Amino acid sequence: MAKKRILSGMRPTGRLHLGHWFGALENWVRLQDEYECFFMVADWHALTSEWQDTSQIKESSYQIVIDWLSVGLDPTRSTIFVQSQVKQHAELALILGMFTPVPWLERCPTYKEQIDQMTTKDLSNFGFLGYPVLQAADITLYDAVAVPIGEDQIPHLEMTREMVRRINNLYGQVLVEPQPILSPTPRLLGFDGRKMSKSYGNAIYLSDPPEEVARKAKLMVTDPARVRREDPGNPDVCSVFSYQKQVSPDKLEWIDKGCRTATIGCMDDKKLLIERLNALLDPIRAKRRELEANPRLVERVLEEGNARARDAAEATMRRVRKALKIFED
Ligand code: SF4
């Protein structure tokens, strides 16, 4: 039986870090067993915030694909492609825009939130307001039955579903209504205790060498009440512990007890964390070195992925054009 199809994407705005691994990629690698996966480099989405300086988008797109292949996304099973190389995304977004009342977009919680938060970027453009429309096109273009998302993206997906229902109510079964595949997104802070972000420079990247991982882990903020080695601490308020939950599930009891009774020091805990993080990242770094030495391989993955994505997208667009009685050549 053919596998059901899903789509996921990331904006190419820089190298990928541990937040991406634990928040999405680890799950994506697993989903390949169960679904036919389309993984999209969302470079047009990156334009919504990076329109004043696009110089990094192409290089970041290439780097993101190297990161994806390094962690185990498998181009023989999954379609890895770049959004801007499949022009049907723009065509379907334009059509879906006709079915989207502007107040839906203005009310979208992430729209308001990001306008308030991203004070360093000018987001007052039409493209940023219409971001969920392009996202709806990305998903429905591939007849994706589901999308792996975090809780915060539910309103966006709901909007996609409403657009699909509008079209289907008027024109028959034209597009597939996608369901969410909710994945728990662990809250990992940057090593300085602030939100993990490229702009704060506080993330541990998948491509960081071992010494850099060790340097950043040593800087990690711990329980501020644990000033001296003999002070008992509270792992629940410690960033190191939130990382340990991901990489050392077998040692949590030892850490929790040792911290609360001051029988282990923060450096003991960090030493273990550094070992575990490097054990996780070693094979990823090795694969990256292999890919960097063979750029043609990455280019080929994208050529083949873009071609496969175009075929699937064109099949959907033929159906949409026919249903809406739009000219075809
Ligand atoms: S011992 Fe570990 S969990 Fe406790 S405060 Fe130090 S780093 Fe955090």
Q: What does this entry look like structurally?
A:
The protein has 329 residues and is mainly alpha-helical. Helix content is 56%, strand content 7%. It has 14 helices and 5 strands. It has helices at 18-34, 43-50, 57-71, 88-98, 102-107, 109-117, 126-129, 131-140, 154-171, 210-219, 239-247, 252-260, 266-292, 295-324; strands spanning 5-10, 36-41, 79-82, 146-149, 179-182. The strands form 2 sheets. The chain has a 3-stranded parallel sheet with strand order 1-2-3. Strand 1, helix 1 (18-34) and strand 2 form a beta-alpha-beta unit. The radius of gyration is 22 Å and the shape is elongated. The chain starts with a strand and ends in a 5-residue tail after the last helix. The model has no long low-confidence stretch (mean pLDDT 93).
Residue share in helices?
55-70%
Distance between the termini: 34 Å
Strand order of the largest sheet: 1-2-3
Secondary structure tally: strands: 5
Mean pLDDT: 93
Strand fraction equals 5-15%
Shape: elongated
The Cα radius of gyration reads 22 Å
